[in-house]
User: Which sequence fits this backbone?
């Protein structure tokens, strides 16, 4: 960085200083607070849904995660289709992308984007463009963890 | 953004209105959110009520536990409890300690210990129905066995 500045002419350096002075600062703290609240709100909705399943259906605390995740992903898919989740994403940033609802959003937004290219090559081929890596890492890491657990179980450590 | 806020308000209103319907089983309605501490119950009358109350005292003595429901059946005794929020990291240790204490103090009893919310909710519902007379001893025993089966399925 310093060598770059050395190579600059005095005029360029002056311009650089002026540019730095007028450059808009990223509101990092504000973004973090927004992400924290919206992410927390999404998690609270998830908790309410899991209590709903525990209360009205035969799900225990151990297996209630499965229908809850499915419901949250489905809801975010619907909201993405209606264009609501995009606005939420603009407002909350990582707060709406990090929870599992961000996964549904990634799938559907890619599907909508490539809809014009047809159902098979467009929607089918590009649907998992963003979310595919999430699935791959999830499945692979689950496989590795299961393998380690099985081996530890076989050796009598666990 | 206005749409989102409107949606949230409508959703919370629906949620709140659904919570206030029907007041027949008040404790079990809020069992997931607040401490209920239901009276310990036996499925058969005059079959170890004192012992069950003693067990409840022992369970309540655990500092990490803030709510407990105990039901004694013919063959097994169900002990369900809620753990204080910050102690949820030590769930396994608490279950192990509780199991050990109960088995040491009552070697003849067959205990099933659980901290699952669903089991707790079903236990509170069973106690309420037993107390208000809508379950006979036989029905209560049957329901208790179903709950015990549910806990064994989780393991």
Assistant:
């Amino acid at each position: 960085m310093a060598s770059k500045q050395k190579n600059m002419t005095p005029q360029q350096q002056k311009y650089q200083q002026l540019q730095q002075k007028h450059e808009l600062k990223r509101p990092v703290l504000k973004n973090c607070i927004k992400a924290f609240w919206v992410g927390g709100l999404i998690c609270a909705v998830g908790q309410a849904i899991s209590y709903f399943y525990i209360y009205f259906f035969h799900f225990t605390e151990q297996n209630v995660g499965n229908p809850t995740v499915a419901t949250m992903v489905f809801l975010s898919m619907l909201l993405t289709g209606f264009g609501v989740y995009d606005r939420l994403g603009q407002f909350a940033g990582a707060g709406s992308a990090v929870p599992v609802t961000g996964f549904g959003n990634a799938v559907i937004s890619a599907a909508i984007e490539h809809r014009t290219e047809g159902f098979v090559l467009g929607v089918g081929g590009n649907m998992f463009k963003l979310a595919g890596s999430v699935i791959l890492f999830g499945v692979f890491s689950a496989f590795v963890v299961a393998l380690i657990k099985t081996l530890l179980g076989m050796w009598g450590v666990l | 953004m206005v749409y989102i806020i409107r949606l949230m308000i409508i959703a919370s209103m629906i949620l709140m209105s659904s919570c206030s319907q029907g007041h027949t089983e008040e404790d079990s309605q809020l069992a997931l959110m607040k401490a209920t501490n239901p009276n310990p119950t036996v499925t058969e009358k005059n079959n170890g009520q004192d012992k069950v109350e003693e067990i409840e005292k022992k369970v309540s003595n655990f500092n990490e536990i803030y709510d407990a429901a105990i039901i004694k059946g013919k063959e097994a005794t169900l002990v369900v409890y809620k753990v204080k929020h910050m102690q949820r990291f030590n769930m396994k240790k608490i279950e192990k300690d509780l199991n050990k204490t109960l088995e040491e103090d009552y070697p003849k009893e067959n205990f099933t210990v659980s901290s699952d919310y669903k089991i707790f909710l079903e236990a509170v519902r069973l106690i309420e129905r037993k107390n208000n007379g809508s379950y006979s001893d036989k029905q209560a025993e049957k329901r208790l066995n179903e709950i015990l089966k549910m806990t064994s399925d989780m393991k």
